[in-house]
Design goal:
- The structure holds two protein chains of two kinds.
- By secondary structure, chain A is mainly alpha-helical.
- Helices cover 73% and strands 0% of the residues of chain A.
- Chain B is built from seven helices and ten strands.
- Helix content of chain B is 21%, strand content 17%.
- By secondary structure, chain B is an alpha+beta fold.
- Chain B starts with a strand and ends in a 7-residue tail after the last strand.
- Chain B is globular.
- Classes of the chains: A mainly alpha, B alpha+beta.
- Chains A and B meet through helix 6 and helix 7 of A and strand 2, helix 3, helix 4 and strand 6 of B.
Chain lengths: 451, 227
């Protein structure tokens, strides 16, 4: 399988072999943003959280919003890739790696948000020393830890044959690739073990991914606070996570398609399929949002209504309606009829959803806190340059991680593309034949007799 | 074992804020300065909330002194990831400043907004502070403790003299300072104590009782004299 002389997919190795000036420009720009974030964080570490716009009663703001948002994005990857693999969607081949990389990179950024949000990051180890499992924060730590571990394994295992290709073809970083390739030769036995490991991880990773965003939502829904204390928060958050995850995946695909000239691998059909998935998630997200807000409104509990009106027509109105616009109206209008210019439309919808899902997280975190039950008066929250810097830095750090990854490893799985050409075609044909009545195989007939 | 509780008679409260000032002095609560106050960073373990009277809008203001309500089922302690806040055996919700990681989950969970955060290092140890109460560093949450240090002192004194803590020997600073005696403090588990007797009054209610937090600060509604 691993044929070092096969040159058909040379373009996938090009970014690793050569470095264009565009790369340095991108790194430079991202570094500037990261520097801004680093200065912001240093200021905060030195002086205290007082340099942010947080106060009483809005004690959670951008950082917690970012946390929920980034952890949500992480569902792009592993979950989507696992589902596509398990459902044997053949079009997955150039997509899965990109998705898995998003997950791993963004999980670091997401988990980091909590560290940034802590008043005493120096005491982070207290979570282990005095950890209290009754607290949803501990559930988060456990679940995210498990997800990160599983995602790294799930990213790494399907990469082994590709690393072997790099080991055999590239002249640089020989030791690095040799160690990571784990002596891959492409023998039949290795192939079997690899496929089995991928299958196991794909199954394993789905429940973990679902648990991650469920427990993230539990941070809010386990409290008694109005418009947080809701039973649908688990599935609502998971839906939003997959929604924003697909959007992030599409944006990454468009970006690398353009930057590395991958037009022949990432075709409009891939964007069409993902766009349809995005459309379904948009409708599902709207259904959840509708159910959540209608239940609150119809019940009309005074505390709930205070928060409800703050979002609907109060100070958070631009964010709320912005969210409806960017999460529902724009994506649906863009995606409902994908005719010409598929990629442009899908990209527009995805960018819109990324903005919208960030707003959605914000509109969940802040208005509840800013409308306390007792007569304190409403607390309006204005982030300072520190929060903006940290947020910009976080996005830039994620992009930089991703970019550096693509300089070390192929961003599209080479061996899976080859497998698609060599084995997939035949396999699909055979599989298709078994679906049809007149060609049913005797093996299947036998199992049917047992009933 | 005692269950410490407090009754606040809203009919008697004049909104004079003596309790607030007494609390600040007793517990080394930092003055955050005007700039911080405008930004909503005032720390006030005891806070007098004001509200327009619905019936006499614009004429009458109602006052609601709010310490930590020392819930028997505290939503803040439920969510703390590190046991930095917990219900102690005598019903006081304690806060361990040296363990708190500053995640502010308890602040988000408290339906009474009784928890405060040290956004900056607001003060250093200095002469003039109460030596019985530790000065909080930056980045941790703090709250009313029912002047827990006073209980410890009373208990030590009683122990040295070989007797039990007498009723009325342990009272928080706000109770002492109230000029109209609107705040009564004592042991709720002793049915004969004044606080337990008042807590049984038909005027007694608890804040957000429907949440099931079981606060041990009990209010007496405004009665005849209202308006």
């Amino acid at each position: 399988m691993v044929d070092a002389t096969d040159n058909r997919d040379a373009i996938l190795l090009a970014p690793i072999e050569r470095t264009e000036p565009g790369f340095y420009w991108a790194v430079g720009l991202l570094s500037l943003l990261i520097l801004w974030g680093a200065i912001a964080y240093w200021t905060q570490l030195d002086e205290g959280l007082g340099v942010t716009g947080l106060h009483q009663p809005v004690s959670w703001g951008f950082y917690v919003t970012n946390f929920v948002f980034f952890i949500g994005i992480s569902h792009a990857g592993t979950l989507i890739s696992a589902i596509l693999r398990l459902s044997r969607a053949e079009w997955r081949r150039p997509v899965t790696r990109m998705a898995e990389v998003i997950t791993v990179m963004v999980l670091f950024i997401g988990a980091g948000q909590i560290l940034v949000d802590l008043g005493r990051p120096d005491r982070i180890m207290n979570i282990i020393r005095y950890g209290r499992y009754q607290s949803p924060l501990l559930w988060d730590a456990t679940s995210i830890g498990a997800y990160l571990t599983a995602s790294i394994v799930y990213l790494y295992i399907p990469m082994i044959p590709d690393i072997a290709i790099l080991r055999d073809r590239l002249r640089k970083r020989k030791l690095f690739y040799t160690v990571l390739a784990l002596g891959w030769t492409g023998s039949e036995r290795q192939q079997k073990v690899l496929n089995r490991a991928i299958a196991i991880m794909a199954v394993l990773v789905i429940p973990i991914a679902v648990s991650v965003h469920s427990v993230v939502s539990f941070v809010f829904s386990m409290t008694l606070q109005p418009m947080w204390h809701s039973t649908i928060f688990g599935p609502y958050f998971v839906t939003g996570a997959i929604f924003s995850g697909i959007a992030a995946l599409i944006v990454a695909m468009v970006a690398f398609r353009k930057a590395y000239g991958l037009e022949s691998y990432l075709k409009p059909i891939h964007f069409r399929y993902l766009g349809q998935l995005l459309l379904v998630m948009s409708l599902l997200w709207f259904y959840f949002t509708f159910a959540e807000y209608l239940t609150g409104y119809y019940g009309g509990a005074p505390e709930e209504m205070k928060v409800f009106w703050a979002k609907w027509s109060g100070p958070f109105r631009p964010f709320f309606w912005g969210m409806v616009l960017t999460n529902f109206l724009i994506p649906v209008l863009c995606l409902v009829r994908l005719g010409r210019r598929t990629i442009g439309r899908v990209l527009t919808a995805s960018l819109s959803v990324l903005v919208g899902m960030w707003l959605e997280r914000f509109i969940i975190v802040v208005p509840t806190l800013s409308t306390p039950r007792l007569p304190f008066g409403e607390g309006i929250y204005w982030p300072t340059w520190v929060e903006w810097g940290e947020t910009a830095g976080s996005f830039a750090l994620f992009a930089l991680f991703y970019l550096l990854f693509t300089k070390l490893f192929p961003v599209i799985s080479i061996w899976e593309i080859r497998e698609g050409r060599e084995v997939g075609l035949k396999e699909v044909e055979e599989r298709l034949l078994t679906y049809l009545p007149e060609t049913a195989e005797p093996v299947l007939m036998e199992t049917e007799k047992r009933w | 074992m005692a269950r410490w509780g407090m009754v606040i008679d809203l009919d008697r409260c004049t909104g004079c804020q003596a309790c607030v000032m007494a609390c600040k002095a007793e517990n080394n609560v930092p003055a955050v300065g005007m700039k911080e106050a405008v930004r909503g960073r005032i720390i006030s373990w005891m806070q007098v909330l004001t509200e327009e009277d619905e019936e006499h809008s614009g004429e009458v203001r109602r006052f609601l002194p709010r310490p930590c309500l020392q819930c028997d089922d505290p939503p803040c302690a439920k969510v703390c990831p590190v046991y930095a806040t917990y219900l102690d055996p005598e019903g006081i919700v304690a806060q361990i400043y040296s363990r708190c990681i500053g995640c502010r989950f308890c602040m988000a969970a408290c339906p009474y907004n009784a928890k405060y955060f040290n956004w900056y290092r607001y003060q250093k140890e200095a002469p003039g502070q109460n030596p019985d109460v530790s000065v909080r560093p930056k980045g941790v949450v703090e709250k009313c403790t029912f002047c827990h240090h006073r209980l410890q002192k009373a208990r030590e004194r009683a122990l040295a003299e070989g007797r039990e803590v007498a009723p009325g020997e342990y009272v928080p600073a706000c109770v002492e300072a109230c000029p109209t005696r609107a705040i009564v403090f004592g042991d709720l588990s002793d049915p004969n104590s004044e606080v337990a007797r008042l807590a049984r009054s038909p005027r007694a209610f608890r804040l957000q009782e429907e949440l099931g937090t079981k606060p041990k600060v009990i209010y007496l509604t405004e009665g005849e004299g209202r308006g």
